[in-house]
Amino acid sequence: MGKINFTITLKSDGEPASGFGTELIDSILPRNSDGHIIIPSPHIKGIIRENLENIPNKLIAPNVIANLFGKENGSSSLFHIDNAVAPKDAKVIDVTRTKLNEFGVADAGSLRTSEAVASGSIFSGTITTYCNLSRDYENLIKLGLLSLFAIGGGRNRGAGACIVTIDNEGRTPGELLRLLATVDFGETPPKDIKENDFVIADDQVTMKLIFKAKNPVCVPEVPITKNNMIRSGFSIPASAVQGAILHRINDISKKTATACYESGNFRAWPLNPSDNTESTSLRVSFTHKISKLKIKNTDNYLFQDETVKPYDWDKISSKSPLTGTDGVLLADGVSVKLWKSSGMARIVSAHGVHNGDRYDKRNSQKRNFFIVESLAPTLFTGIVSMPKSASDLLLKSLKNDSFVQFGKSRSVRGGGDLSAEIVHFATLPIMKKYEKTIFIIQSPVLIPENLVEKSVEEIISAIVKDSGFGEVEKSSGSVTTQFGWNRTFNDKFISAKSVISPGAVFKLKSPIENIEEKLLKGIGGGRKYGFGAVLPHPGVAEQLFHDEAKPSVLAKTDKNFGTEGFELWEKAKESHLSASQISRVRELTGIDADKAIEYLHRQSDDRPIEIWKRWKELINQIEDGIQKDAMHMEKALKVCQDLLVADKGDN
Hints:
Blueprint: E1 3-10, E2 38-39, H1 41-53, H2 62-69, E3 79-81, E4 84-85, E5 92-97, E6 112-117, E7 122-129, H3 135-146, E8 162-166, H4 173-180, E9 204-213, E10 229-231, H5 238-250, H6 254-262, E11 267-268, E12 272-273, E13 280-284, E14 288-291, E15 303-305, E16 322-324, E17 327-331, E18 336-340, E19 346-354, E20 367-375, E21 379-387, H7 388-400, E22 403-405, E23 415-423, H8 429-432, E24 438-441, E25 445-446, H9 456-466, E26 472-476, E27 479-482, E28 485-487, E29 493-494, E30 497-500, E31 505-508, H10 515-521, E32 534-536, E33 543-544, H11 561-575, H12 579-591, H13 593-606, H14 609-628, H15 630-650
């Protein structure tokens, strides 16, 4: 896979709005999980595509652009683009606008304030091209990037004007276009895949997988609801792990990839969030319980799992009830931690996209607004077993290029680095200390047609026994529908299935022999599709991971900006300072406090003496506030400004 590193330098203030706002600011800037301002990758990708589609057909054919970006219900995009990220100290300003009515004056209630990133800000990003992508298609991507002259909202008003530069690329958009206009791209992108004859060995090896996500990961577990909200689960399913591995091997040898897929030695477990690369991370459901409050006189909580150890519920304190939680158990072979799903960072983004065939003029303007809740970039760990010949190719591929993608919208999300290491199954942390008769289901378990009407306990008992694990003493879980998902090798979608949900727990009446062999086989059918993965229970959690968020320490003030803004508003009404004047002072305060004070000083020279006398006390108060704490005064002035506008509208 190739890398195209680029920078976007703003030549005017940019407004790449996130789609969200607050009570004080109607439109806020998008930021990543580290607080850096970003230009979202879907926005960059959309503008690049729009620019390329505006090129006359005789120069670049529409099917070539469709190949590059992926076809609806067809091939995927040939590249992955990261968010373009600004430095931590990027300057943020507020832009306030009103709408004029038919009389040429501001409409009451039309005042809007948006965050903007200041001119001169530099954003850095990376595009990763797919394996063996031709040089012509790479040049087409560069043409789209270099043709990007504005980003964000208000581009038709001059906002977000920018210049794009690409590392080690000195050609202009015109030069690239002249070159590409002479290229015969053909119907499909060429791939230089060399078919090698590898010996398919049956030797089975186990590998530890480590995935370090570079951008948000979205792996939905349920369909989109009526509110067009796409919610990500916190686990990368075993089916997705298998798919990524098989595609890697397939790029080197189709024969080996096919043999691996069909081998009984091929089994992947999900990639789950982890605290470090050495831990085994296991998904748990609401069978694992935690007290709502800390144990008295301690910094820890009470944990419980009824399947592992019965609990005397009569002894529970009414002040510290137990509540079920989903998440992951982090086992390092010594202790077990619980990382609650609710404690995992998420990123919410809003999107408006075109629907339908992009080349059908009747449908090209249909838009669809939706919101995506993704898991913030984090560390994932997992396990995979496969034939040694396939593992050799996978390790070779990852050594050459470790970049992979998981989840939905992989051209703009789910990218990161994957590494693999051959290990002995018995040395994994999960095998050093575990409950010998208790297992946790890690991926959906297919329910046979003859069992769908049975109870959950009866279904689990029957499937576990049929899989050779033995008699079940106790179990806990739930039944759900696994909805259809990605194509397989035969190019067909997998239909919806009734399954036992991941996180279900079952306890055997007696320990099993050949545990590694049993875990590789799993329970139920559908191993090829990632179904039926289980792992031994590491035991009840002993502590909580990511216990409490550390709040930012704010300096104490005698009064908050809301109260001070209200006082400024009352004085502004008496002195007849307008909302536009307050707005100007506030904007200058956000840009440069000295310029704001200079503006205030000019009022004594530019205004008649009678007006200056009326304004003097309030202007001096604002100046003192800016000198003491410019950020605080900027917020107070925003409150004053909004109240002045609202007051004018009421009158």
